Amino acid sequence: MGKTAVSIGANTFQFFTRNPRGSRAKAIDEKDVAAFLEYADQNDISQILAHAPYTLNACSKDERTREFALETMEDDLKRMEYVPGNCYNFHPGSHVGQGAKEGIRQIAATLNQILKPGQHTTVLLETMAGKGTEVGRSFEELREILDLVELQQLMGVCLDTCHVYDAGYDIVNDLDGVLEQFDRVIGLDRLKAIHMNDSKNPFASHKDRHEKIGEGSIGMGTFERIINHPQLQGIPIYLETPNELDGYAREIQMLRECMEK
Ligand code: FE
Ligand code: FE
Ligand code: ZN
Q1: What separation in Å is there between the alpha carbon of 6 and the centre of ligand 1?
Q2: What is the mean pLDDT of residues 108-137?
Q3: Is 95 a catalytic residue?
């Protein structure tokens, strides 16, 4: 994956820890790990981002489903220790009618079981669009989860531009205001990654359908402001747009071109 990233002009990448349905992951091959670490070092690949299977639900009504989320995430975090100093992102979950408050409690309970003192991975909550009963539809809900986590220093947040726009944060007309809100509620020091996606749907639609950069309702101007925003410098950006490799290469180039020197 490192080589593919470099071949399209990237200096980082996001990957799924196992197939998105959450089945068994491959055994760790220590030789592979060593080869990757060396390649990453030689090619200046910085902070990579692991993504948990998106079918996990740490706040399902069903206890077995919650246990499965816990076991899978715990195993993923063990694996992440082979590549220390990176991040592991997950969707908080859907409370499926139990109410956001109960969902938040269950998510935090899971985190309190899987986070281990001394681990070398930061676990990120992703901002969600708020479709169905998704938890994490507002900065406040993410704050509430963080507040219930004991090892809070091991936690951060990943901001998905499509999700927050669909959730009703107007990054198009008031990026500064949204960042100010993020800072007040969560703290910008907790922002460890950005998922950069345009949106197929209008503002506050609570839909979550990603569009290619510049081709959706968010538009190129906003992405240009994001990558040049003084408060967002140094935060790694990951594309999750509907593209093949050549499309990602073009988007990376386009974004690099509008970076202010
Ligand atoms: Fe995601
Ligand atoms: Fe995302
Ligand atoms: Zn999404």
Answers
A1: 22
A2: 98
A3: no
What's the pLDDT at 22? 64
pLDDT digits 0-9 by tens, 137-173: 999 999 999 999 999 999 999 999 999 999 999 999 9
Checking if the pLDDT of 130 tops 70, the result is: yes
Ramachandran region of residue 19, left (φ > 0), alpha (ψ -120 to 50) or beta? beta
Name the catalytic one among 54, 81, 174, 184.
Answer: 54
* Cα–Cα distance, 107 to 70 (Å, whole number): 9
pLDDT given at position 260: 83
Residues 6+ apart with CB under 8 A from 219: 172, 198
How remote is the CA of residue 23 from the centroid of ligand 2, in Å? 20
CA–centroid distance, 211 to ligand 3, in Å, is 10
Instruction: Answer yes or no: 67 catalytic.
Output: no
Name the β-bridge partners of 239: 196
Report pLDDT digits (tens) over 41-52: 999 998 999 999
Question: Residue 127 is inside which H or E element, if any?
Answer: none
* 106 contacts 69 by C-beta, under 8 angstroms: no
* Contact between 106 and 149 (Cβ < 8 Å): no
Cα(126) to centroid of ligand 2, in Å?
7
Is residue 90 within 8 A of residue 56, CB to CB? The reply is yes
Which residue among 76, 160, 198, 251 is the active-site one?
160
Per-residue pLDDT averaged across 200-226, rounded?
98
